[in-house]
Structure formats: structure tokens, C-alpha cells
Amino acid sequence: MTDGKKFEKVVTWKPGMPWKDAIEELKRRREAALLLGGKEKIERQHSRGKMTVRERIERLVDKGTFFEVGSLMGRGTYDEEGNLLDFANAGFVNGMAEIDGRLVALGGEDFTVSGGSPAGIHKDPSFFIQPVALQYGIPVIQLLDGVGFSTQDYAGMGRMTLPDSSDIWRWPVMALHEVPVISAILGPAAGHVAGQAMLCHFSVMVKGTGQVFPTGSPLVSRSLSYEIDKDELGGTKVHRESGAIDNEAADEDDCLRQVKHYLSYMPNNVWEIPARIDLGDDPNRREEDLLGIVPIERKKPYDMYKLIRLLVDKGEIFEMRRYFGRGMITAFARMDGYAVGILASNPMFNAGAIDGKTAQKTARFIDLCNMFSIPMVLLPDVPGLMIGMDAEKQATVRHGMTGIMAGIEATIPKVQINLRKAYGMGSGVFNSLNGMQSLQLRFGWPSGEWGPIPIEGGVAAAYRRDIESAPDPEKRRRELEENLLKLRSPFRCAESGDVMDIIDPRETRPIICRFIKAAQPFLKRNAGPKRSVRPS
Predict the structure, then answer these.
(1) Buried b (16+ CB within 10 A) or exposed e, 18-44
(2) Which of 26, 87, 107, 529 has the highest Cβ tally under 10 A?
(3) Which residue has the higher pLDDT, 464 or 204?
(4) What pTM was computed for the model?
(5) Are residues 242 and 321 in the same domain?
(6) Domain limits for position 93
(7) 293 and 204, same structural domain?
(8) Residue 516: strand, helix, or coil
(9) Is 403 left (phi over 0), alpha (psi -120 to 50) or beta?
(10) Listed residues 217, 249, 264: the one ending a domain
(11) Each residue of 60-117: pLDDT tens digit?
């Protein structure tokens, strides 16, 4: 038990003894569970800058709301008379609680007990939090800090086993289809714990103390014959760029804050829609700074984050996957209090062109918004799919079509504001169809320029022979481009109905807020199970 000491030898309750003895036994066992792996191991956890699982739960949830389930699960050691001599905790703490008044199911590994994996004691999210979340339609929060299966189990069983994936992953996969699932990676997540970390809608990992890998550095060293630190192997520096995690946290408090912030944009389940939270921002606010934010020089980049913050309620956004697929910004925000998903080009990275990683990021975010009935605001400024050898090695066209497919299949309402460029298949990922219906809410700024292919590159390809045969090829190329550039006016597109309207940039927020509010009855009518989020 605590500090490696066994229980003092006392008589353990047995059938036929008085009720007071049974209650005393219950009290003793509950107290033992609260002591986790003992004082020494708790101090070791703290020395690494980490909280215990119970401290994390206490810090995350509303005070006094945590109801624990399965606290007596573990392994007892008894003498010949049946008296309890020692008790090993299960290494996993779980239950229900409230966060900002909302009921959630949550739990996590107790790293102070055998790294969260005590041999012979199998307790994980499928014991309670995933089944209860599915039964009651409430979010799941996983506080991950464990090393997975212990090889000491083999000795206890006297044999090895053939893994049954349906038994291990059935519950988490079912949960993904119905309720928000959040993974907070607060320590090493190896083996099945790493798998749980990935089976979620949002993941956030603590810098320096969180890692994700199928197996840790000792087995890597034995199998691949090279030494590597566990943080180099699977820390935030690796996985914020691999895309395996969504966000990085500076410390555990920041991690738990992000969990709560993300949850605020989510409904309880797929049959509901997110709650409206009025931040006190006028939906008809006209932002003067939007005039001129897109440079007249069409190749000059600008700060899309500033543009987004000028549009949304109080300038508040919650971004996901900032370091992965950096040509696209994916974030949650509010418009007139209603939750929206923001999908915006990032002109500061590859001029907003879409490579393979950006397309994967885009498809996943569209799926996420669609699954939880969150309408989208689309802000394209995209010159097309990324070109070149690196782009081809990322299978850009294949992933780009996945992004287009996600946009077409999504049934949520979308409002699209075409800021500047919208070319080729790259513009296709910003599909503004409202659920494969004919309605496309597409508006354009006067800075817009759109087409299947940019004029400059298109002229070089389509008029190659004409240019090469001219006495002055460069002069001929400029002449052809100048003639065609006259057709680039967005007002000509408006004449043919390609957009609903060309709008003054200052009208953008009022227009978006109007349609997001109008979409709420549709969202309520159409809430329900949809295709789950792509794991990419």
C-alpha cells in the first residue's frame, strides 16, 4: 500500500459480521484507493512536473461533482484466515462529473501504479466511461498517462494471447460515432493507450511530458538497434508536425484549459446542436479595418488570423492543428453566439496553396463540423493545389480529392466569402453546397479573382506555340495575358450569378451572422448520426 507498506493486520469483514464492520471495511478500501501508488511515487510524479490523475480530475471539473465508479477494483492479498494484507489499485480512475454545468464521463491512468498498467488488473475506458457516454449521450474525456499492456501479465496467465481487436477497440469506435471524444495526453501513451489517444475528435499533448508511440524507446532500441529519447521519439515536436495530435499545451493547466475550451463548442452528442453562448458582440458590427486588409498587390500575403478575429465574436477563436497543413487555418469561433467552424486559407504559407497535409487537415475538420452540426464559414484565398515534386510525394491530388469529397458530402450549412484567389481543384475543397442541395451561399469581395486556372500559367500552356513562334515571345506573352486579365473582374462573375453578390468587406460579419442564425432550425431538424470523422 502506501510507501510500500502492507495493511496493518486487522480482521477483514466476512459474511455474518455486523454491518458496522462492513462499513468500516468499505471505508478502509476507499481510503486505500485515494492513496494511489503511495507517497514516494506521487512525489516522483510531481517532480516530473505532472499531477496525479485525481489532481487532474479535481482541476478540470466543477468542484464537488466527481462521482467515482470502480474505486474498489484492484488486487487484494489475503492471509489464510481471509484477512486483507495488501491491496494494489487498478491503475485507472474514472467516473462522471460536470464541467461548466455539463455532465461528462472521464477517466485516466494512474501512472503511480505500475505506470498505469498493473499486471493482472485490466481497467480502462471501456470499463465505464465509454459505455456510460453512449448510454447517456455525454462527452468522453480521456486523461492519458500510461504504458499499455504489461509483459508481467504473461507470467500470471501462463501463456501468451492472440489480440482481439474487436474486444479492445469496439467501445472507443462506437463512441466516436455518437459523442465528442477528447484525449488529453499528459504523459507517455504507449500500446493500447496510444491507440485510445488517437481514437478521438480532439487531442492535446503537454510539451515535454506527453508522448505517443506504439511502444517506448527501450523496445525501439532492442528492435532497431539505436538509442532515442522518448520525447524525441513521440513528443509534441514530432507529432504536432506529423498531424497525430491536434494541439500542443505548454503545461498541464494549459492542457486542461484547452479541453474545456474545445468542449464549449461541442454539443453533448450527435442528436443535439451546440449551445448558443452570447459574448455580447453586436452581430451587425461593421469593421472598418476590413477595408484594405487584402493588399492591392495580388501576390502580397496578409494576416488571415487578423481578418478572422475582426469577423468573429470578440475576436475569440480556438484553433486546431496549427502546425500541420499550415496552408489552411481550421478553428472554432462564434458568430452572434452560435458556434461555427472556420476554414480559411493561410496566404502566409505557400500562398495558401493546398498540399497533401493541408487537404487531410481540411477533410478531417469538415467531417468534425458536419458530425456535430456546426455550420461553417469558408474564407478561401487559394491559388490551387500545390505543385512540384514535394507535393507529388505527399499525394496531393489524392488527398485534395478527399477534401473535395468531404465538402460535398457535408450536410451542414456553409457561408463562403471569396476574399481573393479561388483557382482550380484547390478551390474545390471550399465547397459551399449546403448538403448536396442547390443552395450555395457564395459572396465575393471586390478583390476576388476566380477561375479553373490562373491566367498567367494558363497562357503559357494554352498559347505555347503562339508565343514560341512570335518574333518577340515575351512581348506576345504579355499581350495575351493583358487581354485575358480584363476578364478577371469579379463583377463579371456576379453578372452571371457565380456569387450571390459582391459585398463591401464591412458587410461581411452582418451577412454571416444573418445566415448562421437562420441555419439553426435546419441544424436541429437534421442532427443525428453521420459518417465518423476521418482519422487522417
Answers:
(1) eeeeeebbeeebeebbebbbbeebbee
(2) 107
(3) 204
(4) 0.90
(5) no
(6) 2-264
(7) no
(8) helix
(9) alpha
(10) 264
(11) 999 999 999 998 888 888 888 888 777 778 889 999 999 999 999 999 999 888 877 7
For residue 12, pLDDT over 80 is answered with no
What is the three-class DSSP state of 483?
Answer: helix
Mean pLDDT of all residues in 371-384: 96
Residues 6+ apart with CB under 8 A from 183: 142, 144, 196, 197, 198, 199, 200, 202, 203, 204
Give the containing element (helix H, strand E) for 419: none
Q: What gap in Å lies between CA 61 and CA 248, rounded to an integer?
A: 21
Angle at 106 between CA 103 and CA 109, to 5 degrees: 170
The number of domains in the chain is: 2
- Give the CA radius of gyration of the chain: 28
- Position 183 scores a pLDDT of 97
Phi, psi of 399 (to 5 degrees): -70, -35
Instruction: From 142, 518, 533, select the one nearest 330 (Cα to Cα).
Output: 533
Residue 281 has pLDDT above 90, yes or no: yes
Rounded Cα–Cα distance for residues 221 and 40 (Å): 29
Among residues 182, 178, 170, 172, which one has the least CA distance to residue 371?
178
In a domain, 490, yes or no: no
Both 247 and 298 in a single domain? no
Residue type, 493: C
First and final C-alpha spacing in the chain:
43
> Is 90 exceeded by the pLDDT of residue 453?
no
pLDDT at 474 over 70: yes
Q: What is the distance between the alpha carbons of residues 238 and 220, in angstroms, rounded to a whole number?
A: 16
Q: Which of 214, 230, 264 is the last residue of a domain?
A: 264
Length of the chain: 536
